[in-house]
């Protein structure tokens, strides 16, 4: 489980390879820390991740701690981002908890996004679904 999470950070996050979300996350993924208007499930999660990461022209995440117990894996990471809109560089620390079942992430929780400043809200798409 720890190796799965380390690979997710290395391959999905740091390389921005969103196509790999299908290989790491269950179809019914529940994002317990979802953005306002974010749909649950893999497609909603994938869209939210892409939109969030697209806000940054540069993104580097360093995972410091990975702790596992049963089907849960917790991480503590440092994020260094450059905001695409104003080129401002921000640094902060976040923590995540992942639940893994049958080799896929089924649940995700995250905390520590205050360093980004104002809360991040993903806007509804033209259909009003997000």
Strands, helices and their partners?
Elements: H1 2-13, H2 21-24, E1 25-31, H3 42-53, E2 56-69, E3 72-83, E4 89-101, E5 104-111
Parallel strand pairs: 1-5
Antiparallel strand pairs: 2-3, 3-4, 4-5
Report a brief summary of the structure.
The chain is an alpha+beta fold. The protein is built from 3 helices and 5 strands. A 5-stranded mixed β-sheet has the order 1-5-4-3-2.
The residue-averaged pLDDT reads: 89
**Uncertain segments:** 122-130
**In this structure, how is the largest beta sheet organized?**
5 strands, mixed
Beta-strand content estimate? 35-45%
Strand line-up across the major sheet: 1-5-4-3-2
Overall shape: globular
What string gives the helices and strands in order?
HHEHEEEE
In helices, the fraction of residues equals 10-25%
- Helical stretch tally: 3
Distance between the termini: 31 Å
Radius of gyration: 14 Å
Can you tell me about this structure?
Strands 1-5-4-3-2 form a 5-stranded mixed sheet. The chain contains 3 helices and 5 strands. The protein is of the alpha+beta class and 130 residues long. 22% of the residues lie in helices and 42% in strands.
């Amino acid at each position: 489980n720890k190796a799965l999470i380390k690979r997710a950070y290395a391959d999905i996050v740091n390389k921005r390879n969103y196509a790999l979300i299908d290989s790491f996350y269950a179809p019914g993924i529940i994002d317990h820390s979802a953005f306002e208007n974010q749909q649950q499930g893999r497609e909603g999660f994938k869209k939210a991740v892409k939109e969030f990461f697209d806000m940054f022209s540069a993104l580097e995440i360093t995972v410091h701690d990975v702790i596992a117990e049963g089907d849960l894996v917790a991480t503590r990471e440092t994020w260094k981002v450059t905001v695409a809109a104003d080129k401002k560089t921000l640094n902060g620390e976040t923590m995540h908890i992942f639940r893994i079942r049958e080799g896929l992430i089924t649940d995700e929780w995250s905390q520590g996004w205050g360093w980004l400043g104002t809360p991040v809200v993903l806007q509804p798409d033209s259909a009003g679904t997000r």
